[in-house]
């Protein structure tokens, strides 16, 4: 159902209009059906390459180093032997202190630098410190900022505070695009996922993103479908295209193709571009690359032939 229009307040934030309850049974049954589509070989290869082009290769560990980031950047720029004609990945996602290293290694390759911020993954930090972290990452060259909402504040019902923080973060991003992480595994209901999606879109999000990858469950197809439908309805209302990024728990090429089918059937071909759809990827990339090799060569290559993310 189409969302109700709602005027913004003076700082760009808005409250949340009322929404009908999400039909859990329908969402879950429809999401399950997308994984059962039959995809022909030529379309499969095209879809696998498209999935690679939509990946944000990610490393968000305490032991991350500039050397590890350089390795990831090389993989993002050339994921596979050139004979397979596989495109580069969309972005490399790192912690703010490694943005400069990623920017240096990626150079003019066209691969974006994404940085998590706002006290990732919990969001539990005073707003002024969150905003300074965002500004610092943007100054260091981040093309994209992945912020997290404070789920405790959201679940406590203070939706205006969430809206205000997203609007302030968008302003702090400057020219960088803003992805708003909802951490859907902690939002408890599909209704909450829909409401959080609306808050993010109405207050500056360029993308809405399911998860940090640090909480289980992370991305699921039903949750992603709820968010895609929110994006669709927001586009019908405003004419503004918002991007989508499922992240965490997507590990196989088969799953990635099912997500692409869901995007196509929910939002249409316009969203089948890295500008509007991304995968948060750590383990996913190698399975997709193995499937590309199998489709082209007729046999699997060992996983040992592919570098770890």
Question: Briefly, what is this?
Answer:
The protein is of the alpha/beta class and 309 residues long. It is built from eleven helices and eight strands. It has an eight-stranded parallel beta sheet.
In the CATH hierarchy, the third-tier topology is known as: TIM Barrel
Largest sheet: 8 strands, parallel
| Class derived from helix and strand content | alpha/beta
Rg, alpha carbons: 19 Å
How many strand units?
8
CATH homologous superfamily descriptor: Aldolase class I
Helix content: 40-55%
Shape, please? globular
Show unreliable segments: 1-15
Query: What is the distance, rounded to the nearest whole angstrom, between the alpha carbons of the first and last residues?
Result: 40 Å
Quick one: CATH class?
A: Alpha Beta
User: What are the secondary-structure elements, in order, as H or E?
Assistant: HHEHEHEHEHHEHEHEHEH
**CATH architecture descriptor text:** Alpha-Beta Barrel
Helical stretch tally: 11
How are the strands of the largest sheet arranged?
7-6-5-4-3-2-1-8
Q: What fraction of residues sit in β-strands? A: 5-15%
- Total tally of structural domains: 1
Mean pLDDT: 91
């Amino acid at each position: 159902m189409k969302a109700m229009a709602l005027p913004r307040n003076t700082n760009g934030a808005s409250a949340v209009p009322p929404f009908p309850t999400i039909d859990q049974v329908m969402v879950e049954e429809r999401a399950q059906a997308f994984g059962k589509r039959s995809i022909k070989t030529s379309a499969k290869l095209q879809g696998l390459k498209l999935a690679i082009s939509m990946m944000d290769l990610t490393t968000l560990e305490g032991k991350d180093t500039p050397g590890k980031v350089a390795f990831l950047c090389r993989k993002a720029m050339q994921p596979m032997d050139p004979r397979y004609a596989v495109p580069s990945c969309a972005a490399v996602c790192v912690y703010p202190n490694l943005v400069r290293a990623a920017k240096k290694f990626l150079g003019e390759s066209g691969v974006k630098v994404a940085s998590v911020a706002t006290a990732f993954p919990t969001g539990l930090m005073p707003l002024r410190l969150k905003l300074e972290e965002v500004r610092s990452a943007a100054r260091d060259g981040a093309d994209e900022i992945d912020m997290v909402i404070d789920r405790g504040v959201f679940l406590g019902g203070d939706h205006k505070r969430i809206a205000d923080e997203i609007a302030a973060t968008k302003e702090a991003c400057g020219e960088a695009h803003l992805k708003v992480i909802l951490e859907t595994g902690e939002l408890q209901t599909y209704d909450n996922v829909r409401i959080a999606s609306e808050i993010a879109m109405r207050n500056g999000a360029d993308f809405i993103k399911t998860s940090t990858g640090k909480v289980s469950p992370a991305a699921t197809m039903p949750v992603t479908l709820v968010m895609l439908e929110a994006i669709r309805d927001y586009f019908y209302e405003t004419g503004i295209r918002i991007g989508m990024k499922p992240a965490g728990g997507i590990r196989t090429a088969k799953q990635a193709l099912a997500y692409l089918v869901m995007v196509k059937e929910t939002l249409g071909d316009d969203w089948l571009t890295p500008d509007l759809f991304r995968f948060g990827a750590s383990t996913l990339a190698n399975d997709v690359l193995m499937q590309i090799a199998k489709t082209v060569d007729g046999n699997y290559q060992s996983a040992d032939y592919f570098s770890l993310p």
